[in-house]
Specification:
Blueprint (H helix, E strand, L loop, with lengths): L1 H23 L3 H17 L4 E3 L2 E9 L2 E8 L7 H14 L1 H8 L3 E7 L5 E7 L6
Parallel strand pairs: 3-4
Antiparallel strand pairs: 1-2, 2-3, 4-5
InterPro entries: T2SSS_2
Amino acid sequence: MQLISTMGRIMLASLLVVLISACSSTSYEEKSKIFAAERAAMLSRIVPVDMNGYNLVRVKAEGSNIELTLLYTGGIDVVPIVLVKNIKKTYCSDTEVVSLMEKGVGYKLIFRDMRGRPVLENLISYQDCE
């Protein structure tokens, strides 16, 4: 009887450990989504932001990516792809941004013209900084 009781306790304890560890472990992808949502929420509080003839008008998390929508405001003729290269350099030299990208967060830049039509989409990920 004592043996069964001890074995039952061991089995119950093992089952509890497995259940607790399964519930507490969050997948890499889920963590990336959480980081993206938190960062997007923080950035969305500061929009709109003027950036070299473009306005950052919207920030939102889309899965593990942070979508940044930039609207062309005119005045300065900076081609979107040139602005993407500059943003990429800035992001890849910022330790906080690089840290997030190492954790699976990407930055999707969406450029729109004055009428809101899509002009260019570009994803910046950790691989772009290597």
